[in-house]
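Technical note accompanying the year-one report. For the benefit of new consortium partners, we illustrate the data format agreed upon in the data management plan: each record pairs a sequence with a structure-token string. No post-processing was applied to the example shown here.
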Amino acid sequence: MDFDKKISVIIPYYNADKWIGKCLDSLLSQDLPHNEYEIIVVDDGSKSDPKVLKEYCQNHSNIRYVFTICYIIYYNGI
């Protein structure tokens, strides 16, 4: 974790391959220098191909991709 960043932007990503490029382009076009903020994209078990997202990560050192699968277990009290 970089504590010298001014801003951390966290983006939830689930089957979002159609819009993630536009979202990241918008964030990358800000006036703040790229070394002063980070973009963390969190994928919770998406079925879509993260190819575009991985290309952005390779080309921009301030973008990170986190893949996780969260399971929620419901307890009904029985």
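Partners are asked to follow this layout when depositing records. The chain has a mean pLDDT of 87.
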